Amino acid sequence: MSPSRIEVRLERRLDTSVARDLLTPIVSILVALVVAGVFLVIEGFSPATVYQDMFEASFTTWFGFTDSVATAIPLILTGLAAAISFRMNLFNIGAEGQLYVGAIGASWAGLALAPDLPGPLAVAVVLAAGAVAGALWALPAAWFRARFGTSEIITTLMLTFVALFLMRYLIFGTESYWRDPLSTNFPQGLSIDPVAELPLYSDTRIHLGFVVAVVAAVLVWALVRFTSFGFDMDVVGSSPKAARYAGIPVGRTIIVVLALSGLLGGLAGGVEVAGRAHALDPNGLELGLGFAGIVVAALARYNPWAVIVVAVFLGGLRNAGIALQSVPGERVPVEVSLMLQGAILLFAIGGEVFARNRLRIRRRAVEVATEAVPA
Amino acid sequence: MNEWASVLTLAAAVGAAVPIALAALGETLAERSGVLNLGVEGMMLVGAVTAFLAADAWGNLWLALVIGALAGTALSLVHAVLSVTFRANQIVSGLALVIFGTGLATFVGKPVEGVPLEVGLRPIDLGPLADIPVLGPVLFDHDPLVYVTILLAAAISFYLRRTRLGLSLRAVGESPATADSMGVSVVAVRYVHVMLGGLLAGLAGGYLIMADVPSWSQDATTAGIGFIALALVVFGSWQPWRVLLGAFLFGFARRANFWLQGEGVDVAAELLSMLPYVLTIVVLVLWGTRDLRRRMGAPAALGLPYVRDER
């Protein structure tokens, strides 16, 4: 009997299939629901009821759905921030921090510049201030990466925490320009000039930021698809060496992409301030919108159009946890949303592998090495 | 009074260093094998909440710590499957671990939030040693895990430098193809060390519950320590002793506002909290050039999946 062993290997699929591309995320989500359901059962809840309540709260009613879209606004922008950098193998995981700094910049503009400006200009200036602040916050990481090859993964992550504590410092640590001087016991951000607030659509919570986010998605798509810079991005992303041979300025491409990524993260902060919080709000902003953007981008496979759809789905998921709190009789912790987000992402990563590769399991005889006998 | 405050701060810094050091030593092992696991925070939280639930149910502190460590290991196994076998993007997978771990821990821990724990880690009695002025409280008045952590750093350092298995580990992290051709199983080495990382992160989470904070709540429990641990691995340039030293430094930063207030220096807590992160960036940039980075010890294959077939 010859010895044999089971061999498991992944083989890259050579064909592509639209059906498989669409089916993969759906199956991933279903499996994640089952796994999260196990924990729901352990805690004594009925998964079917909880999921049904969540789905109804976020997607089947008009208010639920429009709220999901409203929550998706910053997620689209942070999702684009992650997508534009991840697709060229640059990992700006600091959109969270760029969002905070964007919020600081935007609220500064809303307090200092907006009162003297007419409505539309005030809005534009506030959003631009957020975007510029976010881009500037990404710039050190971008420059270190381009100049020294310093890992942008670690620097953008570190800068996120610096930004978090900077924002807290401005409200809780000192009597800063951003802090409402009347709020002594519970420090709060000073409200920006109403002229810079984004208008709401009808009786919903969807604000003008949605249009800004969709326009941003279109611009990112066009940049990647139709410009020579988008081509440079692809080449630098897949092979910096080849890019260098082709005369593409690798360092500059890296800096511009990371700065654009930071700009989108900062814009998310600006949109949050002008559209929802109307002040620098360390408690209201600590939602992990930046990190969730990475989830959005990964689920959307870094495609700008898919980012919009996935953001609405995840926005609904985030809202659903909160909506569950008002369902009588059930006491499902709000964190069920976060758990589901994580589970969906984990299974989507796994599912992606199966969509791209074929899993081969086979039994193979182990070749027994025999020494050649000299003739 | 001021000297007393300094001594107390130093003593507290040692305790504050333990969870950071445990998690960072674990992450060092994982990264040395070439796998970046950004999910430390998630593994710590899951370790913390399971340790809490176990301690609450059975009242046995050591059993609780073991269960916390195993919970961290279970979560790290998910990362190992995704990043080693499936060769998925390690960054996305690690962050997914943070999100899932945070969600799971807060969800499961909701019913016991704020409930105080009956058991806790107590300092071991070293007799008259603890009564030595200054040195006593700083060095000899701690719970057993403080000493275990120091021994662990020594053990890992020995393992990396002096053992055959440690050599295999370093080979896998530096040049997996070479290790593979030498007959070392890249997959096995990476699985084992990613899971050791999860084990230590889970233990660090359990320690936080048992020693630092006597009750469960997500904000108060880890408060970003998992990310500090990630920074620390870089700060300590993947060397166990430097990681341990850095942990004491970062632990001191966590407790320094108490001491500074005693000295009459008024620095906002928020600015002090930035310190570890800023320091890590500074170290990274000072050691910026590729040459220095290699000398500094970043595993050459860090973050890269290994595929044998592709040539």
Structure description:
- The complex is a heterodimer of chains A (375) and B (311).
- Chain A is mainly alpha-helical.
- Chain A contains 14 helices and two strands; from the N terminus they run E-H-H-H-H-H-H-H-H-H-H-H-H-H-H-E.
- Chain A has helices at 18-42, 47-60, 62-86, 95-112, 119-148, 152-173, 209-226, 228-238, 240-245, 250-277, 282-285, 289-299, 304-324, 336-356, and strands at residues 4-12, 357-365.
- Chain A has a two-stranded antiparallel ribbon with strand order 1-2.
- With 311 residues, chain B is mainly α.
- Chain B is 73% helix and 0% strand.
- Chain B contains 14 helices and no strands.
- Chain B has helices at residues 2-32, 40-58, 61-85, 90-109, 135-139, 144-162, 164-174, 176-181, 186-212, 218-221, 225-235, 240-262, 269-286, 290-296.
- In chain B, helix 1 packs antiparallel against helix 12 and helix 11 packs parallel to helix 13 (269-286).
- The radius of gyration of chain B is 20 Å and the shape is globular.
Keywords:
heterodimer, A: 375 residues, mainly alpha, two-stranded antiparallel ribbon, 2 strands, disordered C terminus, B: 311 residues, 14 helices
Could you give a quick summary of the protein structure above?
The complex is a heterodimer of chains A (375) and B (311). Chain A contains 14 helices and two strands, in the order βααααααααααααααβ.
* Shape designation of chain A: globular
Strand order of the largest sheet of chain A: 1-2
SSE class of chain B: mainly alpha
Largest interface: A-B, 51 and 51 residues
Helix fraction of chain A by DSSP (H/I, runs of at least 4) = 55-70%
Q: CA-to-CA gap between the ends of chain B?
A: 67 Å
Residue-averaged pLDDT of chain B: 84
Q: Could you give the distance between the termini of chain A? A: 28 Å
Give the H and E element order of chain B: HHHHHHHHHHHHHH
The biggest beta sheet of chain B reads: none
C-alpha Rg of chain B, in Å? 20 Å
Question: Count of DSSP E strands of chain A?
Answer: 2
